[in-house]
């Protein structure tokens, strides 16, 4: 018996029809009523990645090199994402990708990524429950915020006041 086998505690006989599930049933369960083990397994590439990382970590030098490489790769991705945050585009998504890279080796990054995912899901669920007017107001507020950040970064970086330039050209 493996860890994925399901034991019937009631010792009852299988349902009529040979234990087959009616058409349109839950695809996550097998004909015996248990959870389909193939859906619980990690994808093959994740198994290969876990094995590769375990082999590298088994060697003390490999462990240090892996930590340094993951740290630098995560730092590069987070830095690029942080530079892109004020601009329209996927800046925060890139920062979260860098945090995901760090989470391969650093437990603090894994905890921070878990925290961020949880609250991002909560925020997304809350927004989707709101009316269209509230969603539009949230979208407009976000666009105003991004516009203000772009305006401030251009003003500070290039000493160009975009509002003044637009008014001079009109």
Automatic annotation (TrEMBL):
Region feature Disordered, mapped onto this chain: 1-37
Transmembrane regions: 64-85, 91-113, 134-158
Domain of life: Bacteria
Keyword Metal-binding: no
Pfam families: PGPGW
Entry keyword set: Membrane, Transmembrane, Transmembrane helix
Protein name, UniProt field: TIGR02611 family protein
Species annotation: Phytohabitans suffuscus
